[in-house]
């Protein structure tokens, strides 16, 4: 049982570390929102593992509230980003190729 707890702790720790890294590095608000979702999912997984191993159903309302808050937060951020005007319009880095000149002379 201890080996399983260690494996769960290492995997959740790696997920949290990657989530925090994306939160710090992420250039856009969507990257940061995704990292918050990863952190919330890691917390939910850890609490769920605790509830399963200790057969403790008292934490289930906490899981429900946290998952609802995560869902509402994700939807709110998505609506916020969808309403923002485009700040950076993608421009091509190379000019378009010129159209080929029509062939002179007639066709046979």
Automatic annotation (TrEMBL):
Where is it mostly found?
membrane
Does the UniProt entry include the keyword Transport? yes
Which compartments does it reside in? Cell membrane
User: Which InterPro entries does the record cross-reference, listed alphabetically?
Assistant: MrpF/PhaF-like
Instruction: Name the keywords, alphabetized.
Output: Cell membrane, Membrane, Transmembrane, Transmembrane helix, Transport
Source organism superkingdom: Bacteria
Region annotation Disordered: where it falls in the sequence: 87-108
Segments spanning the bilayer are 6-25, 34-53, 59-78
Q: Looking at the keywords, is Secreted present?
A: no
Enumerate the Pfam families for this protein.
MrpF_PhaF (PF04066)
What membrane topology does the annotation report for this chain? Answer: Multi-pass membrane protein
What is stated as this protein's family in its record? Belongs to the CPA3 antiporters (TC 2.A.63) subunit F family.
Q: What is this protein called?
A: Monovalent cation/H+ antiporter complex subunit F
Q: Which organism is it from?
A: Streptomonospora nanhaiensis
């Amino acid at each position: 049982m201890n080996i399983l707890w260690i494996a769960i702790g290492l995997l959740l720790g790696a997920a949290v570390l990657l989530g925090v890294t994306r939160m710090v590095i992420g250039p856009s608000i969507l990257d940061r929102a995704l990292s918050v979702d990863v952190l919330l999912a890691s917390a939910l997984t850890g609490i769920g593992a605790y509830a399963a191993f200790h057969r403790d159903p008292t934490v289930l309302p906490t899981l429900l509230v946290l998952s609802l808050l995560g869902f509402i937060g994700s939807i709110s951020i998505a609506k916020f980003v969808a309403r923002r005007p485009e700040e950076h319009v993608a421009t091509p880095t190379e000019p378009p190729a010129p159209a080929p000149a029509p062939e002179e002379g007639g066709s046979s």
